[in-house]
Amino acid sequence: MAAQADLVVRNAVIADGTGGPLRYGDVAVSDGVIVSAGEEAVTAGPETTVLDAHGELVCAPGFIDVHTHDDAAVVRHPGLEFKVAQGCTSLVIGNCGFSAFPATGEDDIESIAGSDWSDLDAYRREVTASGFAANVMALIGHNTIRIATIGRDLDRAATADELAVMRGHVRRAMEQGACGLSTGLIYTPGKWTSTEEIIELARAAAEGGGVYATHMRNEGERLLEAVDEALAIGRESGCPVHISHHKAAGQENWGKVADSLAVVDRANAAGSTGAAGPGGTPGPGREGGPGREGGPAVTLDFYPYTASSGPMFEYTSPETITPDWAEHNQFATCPPFPQYQGRRVAEVAAAEGLSLSELVRRVFATAEGQQTISIGFGMSEDDLATNVRHPLMMIGSDGIPELDGLPHPRLFGTFPRIYAEYVRRRGLLTMAEAVRRMTGLPADRFGLAGRGRLEPGAAGDLVVFDPTVISDVATYEDPKREPVGISWVVINGQLTYDHGRHTSARSGQVLSFARPA
Ligand SMILES: [Zn+2]
């Protein structure tokens, strides 16, 4: 019997994060740690917070968002409301090659100008002192270390000395608890980087047991070549590969995600990226899931929307903009012209009486304008369904925490949308399997030791939700709306969200990577 539990979820439908069968019981937390998860009935004391699930609500480990850009959001928005309201209790930061450290002196979504984030320890020190709501696990970003070492605007190979400096950044990050290296190979300066340079740096991540997480060089016409490059980097460096926001953009490329997943399956069957462990693609619901014995060579994540989003400056220019691009893209956040937000680029140009080139030139005329975020409609629903069925597919919101404009609804809706769309409406995932993809599977891959499963001794990260109600309500027109159907979110034992109300709990931690046992 758990003596004097601080918090008890009573009469819950327990989804424990392994993908195993649902069961009924109580979940108890003491001193921030789960002390009982359905094994025994728990007696509450007078000081115990009791949350009654009435035999109807699901209690799961807190969800892990494996693809975020929340590095600076822990300071700008320390309540992390847009993630906590989805049931997320841990966030992997530093994605797409951009991380908060080492500080580059720039001010953007992953960093804050003037911050002293020289390395992960400095970042941890500063953000821990100010306090934030959810846990974070850091990747170190290749673009960031290249900007810090070589500069943003130099289209050339790194010298041997520069490579040594960059390798030092990766090594130090791994020693300080990072979970691996990320790249963003469509962005500046990642797009100028050779495969060999990345292999060298991924080797330093591999030495620390970390993962290589990549926004690949191409997600459209040359998707399969990009997957081949990612697998080669894994094979040569010995680093397990994680493919970020797996997609095929552009109508002529729809369907390619199935080909790409077939390549991933072959690599896993062969164990051919050289990752530790047996590889192989386990079926859904296998006890323990993949990862506990070293993990598969290749894993992935996706977000359940047919539109993508990112910095517009990286996608188009006055010289290259086409009518097709302008038809399929809209302004999300446009600091100098907020009146453009939520409207397609083509529509704005027509309304302003400007050519597309003139409009883009006007928007990018200032440094502020170059921070514009756009949303591009280019994926197929069928590809989303193909993605969600894959047993090694995790969920990553890729939300951009820029709250001034009209952000992509994935920032507020990703995790509930998986349940509404793929568990309830289309029946492509079981409840237990959906929970595993958001908890046990990512915890193993990204080294969140003692999280991602409901078991005694695990951290007290919980989400309690109504499986018949949980839904996203954020839309492209009205994106900053918190989901429905989430009752409570508990982070490191602290009640952080209660039926639409955010408490002032700031119990998030900067986690340290632990290699799966
Ligand atoms: Zn990306």
Structure description:
Helix 5 (160-175) packs parallel to helix 6, helix 6 (195-207) packs across helix 7 (223-237) and helix 7 packs parallel to helix 8 (256-270). 28% of the residues lie in helices and 19% in strands. Helix 3 links the parallel strand 7 (88-93) and strand 8. The chain is built from 15 helices and 20 strands. It is α/β, with parallel strands linked by helices and 517 residues long. The strands form three sheets. Strands 1, 2, 3, 4, 5, 17, 18, 19 and 20 form a nine-stranded mixed β-sheet that branches. The longest helix has 16 residues, at 160-175. 56% of the residues are buried. It starts with 6 loop residues before the first strand and ends in a 15-residue tail after the last strand. Mean pLDDT is 93; it is low at 274-293. It binds zinc ion.
Question: What is the beta-strand fraction?
Answer: 15-25%
User: Which ranges are low-confidence, i.e. pLDDT below 50, for 5 or more consecutive residues?
Assistant: 274-293
Helical residues, percent: 25-40%
Question: What hetero molecules are in the model?
Answer: zinc ion
- Silhouette: globular
Care to count the β-strands? Answer: 20
Quaternary structure type: single chain
Helices and strands: which structural class? alpha/beta
> Which whole number gives the mean pLDDT?
93
The largest pleated sheet is described as:
9 strands, mixed
The radius of gyration over CA amounts to 22 Å
Straight-line distance between termini = 28 Å
Tally of contiguous helical segments? 15
